[in-house]
Amino acid sequence: MQIHVIIETSLLLEEYSNPSTDPKNPTMVSNKFLCVVKAGESDGFFELGENKIKVKKDVVDEISFHVISESANFDSPVLLYDLKHHGENEILDKFLVSASEIDTIVPISFDPLETTIETRMFLVNKILVTGIGVEEYGIYFGVFSYDFTSLGYFEFRFILEIE
Q1: Mind giving me the DSSP string for 27-88?
Q2: What is the pLDDT at residue 43?
């Protein structure tokens, strides 16, 4: 199962005009400028609230989290760099990130069908579901400028229920 967090970066940066510059101590944000969307196994996923994700362990054995800006990372790219547990009982394994080079098509003009093939590096993460219960987690993400300097580090907390 994949969980996508779409972030309205311009409004986020307007609201949090002086965010943390320390990735180990990110600024806590609400869901006001975020939209959480799921993709994948619909049978194992049965609740998505503003700050809550509920899944069935017998159907979902791993979860991948992805963040992206509302402009598909065109204006202010967003990067997921950690998933922190803020509870007592672990229901997920360690957050693992790997990189893969993949050939993909990219447009070469204003005609989207005029494309070329490029090899790009993609980050892939996955977290194995190891238990059942209700726990709080935080998605740690950075927002960057057009020249890839950091504009701030943020944390979005949510409740994950595995039954």
Answers
A1: EEE-STTEEEEEES-STTEEEE-SSEEEE-TTT--EEEEEEEETTTTSSS-EEEEEEEE-SS
A2: 59
Residue 140 CA: distances (Å) to CA of 2, 4, 12, 46, 110: 16, 13, 14, 24, 35
pTM of the model: 0.87
Separation CA 56–CA 162 (nearest Å): 6
CA 126-132-133 angle, to 5 degrees, is: 110
User: Phi, psi at residue 152, to the nearest 5°?
Assistant: 150, 160
- Which alpha helices (DSSP H) does 91-159 contain, by range? none
Q: Are 7 and 70 in contact (CB under 8 A)?
A: yes
Contact present, 155 and 91 (Cβ < 8 Å): no
10-residue averages of pLDDT along the chain (163 residues): 88 94 96 83 60 80 88 81 92 90 91 91 88 94 91 95 89
Rounded-to-10 torsion of CA 93, 98, 103, 107: 90
Pairing outcome for strands 27-29 and 150-162: parallel
CA nearest neighbour of 77 among 9, 144, 131: 144
